[in-house]
Amino acid sequence: MSLSPGGPAGTEVRVLEPGDNTATECPPTRAPHPWRAVLPIAAVVLAILLAGLGTWWATAPPFRPDDDKGDPHALSRNQTPGRAKWPLIREGDRGGRVFVVQHLLAEHGYPLNPDGIFGRITKTEVKKLQRRAALLPDGEVGPDTWPHLIVLVDSRSKGHAVEALQILLHYAGHRTSITDDFTAATGESLKNFQGSNELPVTGVADEGTWLLLVTSQRPAIHS
Q1: Could you give the angle at which helices 160-171 and 184-196 cross, rounded to 10 degrees?
Q2: Which superkingdom heads the taxonomic lineage of this protein's source (predicted)?
């Protein structure tokens, strides 16, 4: 390569000569942006995460609004959260639920003549039960008292607890004779009630069965 005049005054013109490569050199190449190397890996990771999320969504059990209530009676309902709560029965109430409270008190040995009216005598006996169970003796049958009041009833049972169970079954639409004897008809009605309420069909009145039987009744009338 040689320099030759020919441009404006004071300038030199660059003339290529055979074999001269200097004019064909490429400008320096710009380095690739670092994200260009990362993007393909990120796309693969994102695809794997989305596939896993889709699998979980397809197989996850449906959410129920009451799944997080932590019902203390859930274990007696086949490990599922309870949908019902023990009602409050107190002085001045009357009706089927009061009959049940009185029969169960009598089952525990407290002298009562069940009449369906929650009066002073019934309140006094409830307080006795509560003191024996180390509960606050307020004379009201609520969520803390019911579990101490109910008893396990099966085909060998007799007495006031069976009669309380029969009253509940009868008024829950599973008709059975109201006696103090656990008859075959009582057992069949109990199993029908359990099956229709998604309870284990055992023919045994446990805490979960009592809970749904009590809450399926009409609310007590307060006067």
Answers
A1: 50
A2: Bacteria
Angle at CA of residue 191, ends 187 and 196, nearest 5°? 150
- Contact at 8 Å (CB) between 100 and 141? no
Alpha-carbon span 61 to 158, nearest angstrom: 42
pLDDT in tens, 78-135: 333 356 799 999 999 999 999 999 999 999 999 899 999 999 999 999 999 999 999 9
Q: How far apart are CA 66 and CA 78, in angstroms?
A: 15
Rounded to 10°, the helix 96-107/160-171 angle is: 160
162: left (phi over 0), alpha (psi -120 to 50) or beta: alpha
Q: pLDDT (tens digit, 9 = 90+) per residue, 51-85?
A: 665 655 554 444 333 333 333 333 333 333 356 79
153, β-bridge pairs? 205
